[in-house]
Q: What sequence folds into this?
């Protein structure tokens, strides 16, 4: 099937398909984005965010390395770590922050452009369960599951980068999250999105990325991963501050975002909740410019809402409108935005509920145009990752990209000469024009269109889950990603092992390498977990 799709793509390209032969992530141009409010109302929200940052402030853990810089920049800092940002500093930061960045693949041969004109699709993020292949029931995820999801993501045409889709629950510590980066690098050539809980993890991962790229300067020139920082709403804890500083100073692209919950951690209204999300994002942008002017840092906060009947996160219509509002505000500011509401579902398993929700929020992305959709395949309120959901999301991403091309209106496409020649009752079936352009504007669907079983067709009567499962099994059995060079893989593992040993030594669990080590062997060093 992989080879057959390649042949189809080649044929379409030969016929002049702008999408297949050009820039797959491009949405800007033929079709406009959607705005849920007027420019005047958008400006009111921006002004309200500036007001909250300058008069109320944002909370910080007292990290001297940052507090000194904030004070030097002219911010008002209280003894309790509340920082108020002058409006002129916010505006200056929005002017100086980089408006785009190139995120490169593993060998540095190709990139995706993160800007306001492209949308890229990414599986994720940090689920703690997967659906067992044999029983279909949810179970704790492990490293092998992360490797499998990453390989499948590498095989899918419309998945552009890969994130930590599911956690290695067996090793839920600093060493486990470092190894998750290694698992991603081993199993895909695509660019990566990385996030971690421990600030030290990022330092080790930067060493791994430097080893892959061949030097620190080379990594800054061709960033291999984007780092995700996840503060609380309107509050930056010490690990998040340290991660932001280290990533920005290393020249690694950064996105910072939280989840505000209207009615709980933010006002229940859409406008009020959006302001809180926007303030969290704008704060990160200001911090990034204070650390290193001209660096790339974008927002990714999600404005979600309490379901009044249950107290849980719900309210899909409010969330959809809030997401569109955040995307439009960032477009006005000229800064790309990473988002979450596409390709995931709150449904407990991959069923008709999940398929309906994924279809709906993927179509929402047609209008909102985020820079990155990073939650493809996530089900069960973000707890469980589904390969079936990922394949459906990849399929619908193809539909979006076909629609973003718009309608080509030329004399050849209008075909008036042909219509005059054929007349009112013309037959276009055997016409050369039909043969030349029959695939030019079509969506080459794997599960729908010609592959949709109908009573008048010859395809067997399989439902959507069965069609997806059949392709998934083919990928699992036959697809292998390009292998990471053995010497680089050994270096990545060596970096992780050296860090593990240094941590154990610092905790007093092992002696220095030149000292006697009774009771500690090379075999058991690698399996000691952090408390």
A:
């Amino acid at each position: 099937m992989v080879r057959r799709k390649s042949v189809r793509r080649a044929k379409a390209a030969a016929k002049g398909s702008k999408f297949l032969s050009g820039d797959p992530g491009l949405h800007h141009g033929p079709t406009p984005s959607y705005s849920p409010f007027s420019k005047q109302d958008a400006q009111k929200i921006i002004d309200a965010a500036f007001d909250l940052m300058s008069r109320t402030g944002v909370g910080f853990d007292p990290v001297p390395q940052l507090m000194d810089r904030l004070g030097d920049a002219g911010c008002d800092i209280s003894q309790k770590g509340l920082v108020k940002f002058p409006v002129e500093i916010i505006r200056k930061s929005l002017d100086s922050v980089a408006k785009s960045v190139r995120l490169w693949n593993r060998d540095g041969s190709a990139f995706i452009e993160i800007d306001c004109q492209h949308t890229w699709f990414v599986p994720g993020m940090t689920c703690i369960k997967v659906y067992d292949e044999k029983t279909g029931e949810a179970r704790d995820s492990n490293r092998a599951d992360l490797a499998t999801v990453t390989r499948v993501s590498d095989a899918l045409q419309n998945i552009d980068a890969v994130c930590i889709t599911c956690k290695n629950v067996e090793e839920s510590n600093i060493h486990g999250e470092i190894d998750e980066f290694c698992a991603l690098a081993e199993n895909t050539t695509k660019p990566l999105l990385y996030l971690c809980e421990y600030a030290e993890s990022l330092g080790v991962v930067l060493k791994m990325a430097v080893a892959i790229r061949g030097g620190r300067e080379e990594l800054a020139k061709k960033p291999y991963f984007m780092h995700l920082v996840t503060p609380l709403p309107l509050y930056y804890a010490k690990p998040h501050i340290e991660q932001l500083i280290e990533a920005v100073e290393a020249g690694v692209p950064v996105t910072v975002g939280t989840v505000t919950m209207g009615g709980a951690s933010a006002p229940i209204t859409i406008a009020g909740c959006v302001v809180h999300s926007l303030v969290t994002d704008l704060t990160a942008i200001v911090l990034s410019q204070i650390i290193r002017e001209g660096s790339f840092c974008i927002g990714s906060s999600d404005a979600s809402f309490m379901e009044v009947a249950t107290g849980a996160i719900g309210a899909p219509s409010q969330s959809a409108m809030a997401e569109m509002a955040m995307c439009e505000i960032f477009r006005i500011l000229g800064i790309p935005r990473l988002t979450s509401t596409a390709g995931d579902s709150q449904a407990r398993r991959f069923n008709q509920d999940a398929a309906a929700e994924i279809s709906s929020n993927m179509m929402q992305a047609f209008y909102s145009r985020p820079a990155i959709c990073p939650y493809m395949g996530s089900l069960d309120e973000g707890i469980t990752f589904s390969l079936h959901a990922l394949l459906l999301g990849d399929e619908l991403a193809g539909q979006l990209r076909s629609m973003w091309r718009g309608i080509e209106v030329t004399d050849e496409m209008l075909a008036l000469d042909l219509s005059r020649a054929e007349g009112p009752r013309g037959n276009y079936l055997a016409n050369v024009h039909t043969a030349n352009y029959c695939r030019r504007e079509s969506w080459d669907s794997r599960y729908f269109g010609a592959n949709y079983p109908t009573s008048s067709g010859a395809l067997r009567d399989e439902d959507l889950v069965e069609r997806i499962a059949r392709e998934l099994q083919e990928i699992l059995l036959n697809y292998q990603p390009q292998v990471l060079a053995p010497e680089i893989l050994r270096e990545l593992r060596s970096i992780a092992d050296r860090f593990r040993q240094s941590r154990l030594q610092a905790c007093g669990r092992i002696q220095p390498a030149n000292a006697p080590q009774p009771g500690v062997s090379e075999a058991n060093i690698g399996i000691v977990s952090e408390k």
